[in-house]
Amino acid sequence: MPATTFDMTVPRPYALLAELTYRCPLHCPYCSNPTHARNGGELTTDEWKRVVREAASLGVLQIGFSGGEPLVRHDLAELIRAAREASLYTNLITSGIGLDDDRVRTLRDAGLDSVQLSFQSDEAEIADEIAGARAHQRKLDVAAKVRAAGIPLSLNFVIHRRNIDRLANMIELAERLGAERVELANVQFYGWAFLNRAALLPTREQVDRAREIATAAKARLAGRIDIFYVLPDYYEARPKPCLNGWGERYLTVNPIGDVLPCPTASSAIPDLHFENVRGHALDWIWRESESFNRFRGTEWMPEPCRSCPQKEIDFGGCRCQAALLTGSAANADPVCTLSPNRRIVDAVLYNLNSSSDHPPDWTYRVSPKAIH
Amino acid sequence: MPIEINNAAQARLAKGVRLQNDSATGKSVLLFPEGIVELNETAHEILTRCDGRTLSEIVRGLAEEYDSNVAALAADVRETIADLHQRKLIELT
Questions:
Q1: What is the ipTM of this complex?
Q2: Residue A155 has what pLDDT?
Q3: pTM of the model as a whole
Q4: Shortest Cα distance from B74 to chain A (angstroms)?
């Protein structure tokens, strides 16, 4: 296709995930960041501001500042201000470490619309063990500061074998802290979490109980707290509608400026080349690049997806999961029971659920290695 | 669960909810954490008036501006506000 063709069928993105850095004070073994991230070469303040403006003119309405821990960037307030100037709705996705009274006020005054604060569990002992750092008490303090500043607060929990039995307590914590929204996300296996899968995957019994607790809490708290329960996809029969389709609504820019259809794509799909904002305009990358078009729509699908009535509903599931588990990103997500590769997932579940052994130890996430 | 809304209830955008124009479509949208709702023209006209005005005031204002039937408008306004209130996008006091 000649580069001058303006393809009217290309969708517009609604949300940009801005991964400002992979540096992080916590060491959570479920982190979805790449295990081989390198430190250095991060985009500068001016480069991020350009990305923000270009995203807004592409149609993006929401931006999530994430990482790593976005608070380690000293230009965060400046970037929030730039996003607000471009009329974006600004979300901070944070561990809370580094958020004191002054900083909360500065970010609010820069126009921060919402804070999503991660918690590892409901109480310090387990939470700090999971985070690999003494963080829980500081997070409780941060939640209070965010509330006092009048910024809407979401609590984000990643649920896995070691904390899933405390789900009800986590929901209680969200009520106690006055959160407007809670995300209870069963761990998805990418990055560090994929490496630590054997330690993190809950048992079928745990998953069944958690589902009941989440469903009941959702009904009980309707109209007060919005509860988003992310399903444990290995235990499902159909895959998640990942990103609502590749290159349909979302884009991610990682710390060094690579533009990704999905934050885990660069590590999960190493044979796909991703463009960088230093080399191309965001608009071109979104519309024209090979990486964004490779799995767009339904034409790329092999069987069993191609003839499946669900293909416009789940889009064949997750490309990264297909790549990690089957070796090819073009395969159906092996979580799907119609996939010839479902046995890979079943074997993992069988090994776990037929054994009474303690789960193995996990490997803590380490901060990216500095380039010398 | 249908909620009875008093005509004297004051309507405001809930905390963290923003009403703005979507320059890609020219339409009005509500933005909130992890969510976007696209509004039709009627909903847009109602929401621009959710600044602490009561339900009756909103209906009266719209009836004057569009010279339309108050009863029909009142039902529209009530339905839109009830829906958005249930989704926690509008606060009623």
A1: 0.90
A2: 98
A3: 0.94
A4: 24
